[in-house]
Amino acid sequence: MGKQLGALNRVAPVEARHWAAVAGNRDAGVDRHRRTRMLQLTLTPEAVLGDRRNYTRRAFLERTTSCAAHMGVMAAASPLWTRGLWTRQERFPVVASEPWGRLEQITDGIWALVSNPLEDRTTLCNGGIVAGRAGVVVIEGFASDEGARWMAQQAVRLTGRAPTHVIVTHYHGDHTGGLRGAAENADVVMLATALTRDTILERNGNAPADVLERVELVSGGGPTEIDLGDRSLLVVPRRGHTGSDVSIEIAEPSVVFCGDLVWNGMFPNYVDAVPDQLTPNVRVMRRREPTTYVPGHGPLADDAAMGAYIDLLDDVEAAARRAIERGMTAERAGEEYALPQGMEDWTLFSPQYFGRAIGAWMGVLNG
Prior knowledge:
The chain has helices at 45-49, 57-64, 67-77, 80-87, 145-159, 173-176, 179-182, 194-203, 209-212, 275-285, 303-325, 330-336, 352-365; strands spanning 3-4, 94-98, 101-107, 110-115, 127-132, 135-139, 165-167, 189-192, 216-217, 224-227, 232-238, 245-250, 255-263, 292-297. It is of the alpha/beta class. It has a nine-stranded mixed β-sheet. α10 runs antiparallel to α11, α11 (303-325) crosses α13 and α12 (330-336) crosses α13 (352-365).
């Protein structure tokens, strides 16, 4: 089922700085008494899944461990001031706007979708469109068939051509729930890693097996170049948010689609994280030249935002180390944790996510 990506794309070397591991983590003392805006609520199937249908326990658990659940609960709980922060941060001209998100034109032939999960869950995750003379790439399968179809329609509207490729960054449902909608054009090439494809099938009983059989497998051994004629992009295998992630990277202009390795304006979900891989992979994605970063969730990011996010990842690790030294549980450490200075307005809904992140690090540090 599926085949290894071969003749379709060529493999090109990536600059050493994109692969060099960056040693050392900041563990500076931090004021633990900062004010943090917290949103408290009770986790219910209705809050997570957005309606009052009857769900099996298995279906509820599948959804509540995903980023889609993270978004759904936040949508149910977030007050208007947080939603305003989310929607006022466009950085580029907006060429399409719907309740579920806005499409920003970064440059000729490159667009980024910034989803608004606090209002509508049609797409849920961020994504994009990259066009060249020889093809049109859509990044992500999104949360629903409707969302994936809308993105394909935008590609046709903006480029005059249907998508030739769809790239999935990882296996979570808010990035893959719309795969059938994304694959309605029989000629489109679906790209994912083997672990991403297999985990979708394993975790989602409603996964479109016929679509996943068509997936071209991205090599885990190095980056794959997709040649679009006058532009190329690299699909770079990484780990950290899950056991198998990819970033999509463009050299000129400098643009990186980060998947859920990067979040902006929202504390990340560590449910499947490999934290000791997450931080170094984010560090090597950060470029020296001015770059637009498209996070998996939240507004588009620049170098300052990437730096702040890396500081957050380091801060979570430092909190885990302090918890171990003090003999604390992850839950207790999460209750005491406060976001770094300047991030007080990041969207949260429950201190349990702090404990989950710290616990993921404690699991690594304790061996």
